[in-house]
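ok so I'm stuck.
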Amino acid sequence: MSQDASQHIAAAGENRILTALPSADRDELFGLVRKVTLPVKTVLFEPGAPIEALYFPTDGVISLVTPLHDGAIVEVATIGNEGIVGVPLVPLSGLAVRAISQVAGHSLRIDAAAFVAVSERSTAFQALVDKYTQALFGQISQAAACNRLHSSEERLSRWLLMSHDRVGTDQFMITQEFLGQMLGARRSTVSVSAGILQRAGLIRYVRGHVTIVDRSGLEAVSCECYSVIRTELERVVDASPQRRPPEVAPERL
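replied:
not stuck anymore, here's the structure
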């Protein structure tokens, strides 16, 4: 694994938007958030529903998906410890997507009204939110092109690399069924693609457990979309986290 990748993964366990803030703004936000556990398949909000709370993931991965009438879903973006779930926030309105936890983890939850109030008081926080929202839209556009033009192996590699960046560990859980939904592919297609990566010595995939064995090799197999998306997200905040944030009281979701 490259030194750059190691430093990026080491940031997992913190939310990088929050750690990039000036200390006074950061301390104010930590007084307003509550730590929650997000088991896999936890739905944070549905399409069109008012956003009552926003989330700053610290590990795990949240998907933004578009549900279709036949029950299928299409992933349009993923969010980890580099981002915010629930932006762009329009008070008393909703987004045209479902937010669902695809890799179990933890997050810091803030009520929508408190989020708006801090945004209005803190120009530094609002600037980060605006920059992240722009990067999120860039990710959505890039992912749309990727899903249309690139092979299942390339897309699977991109998805695994982005998840690896965020969870802070080489091993995480994801079922073939759920991964197929996220990639818009049949379960059999995901199985074949995962088998190709496994035979190449890049990953191990057993009973829903994925282990990243050769990250550099996985980066070589992935399409350019991984690098493009990651570069845009890295521009939002400095790659090196600041001081360790204070403890946050846990809360049930």
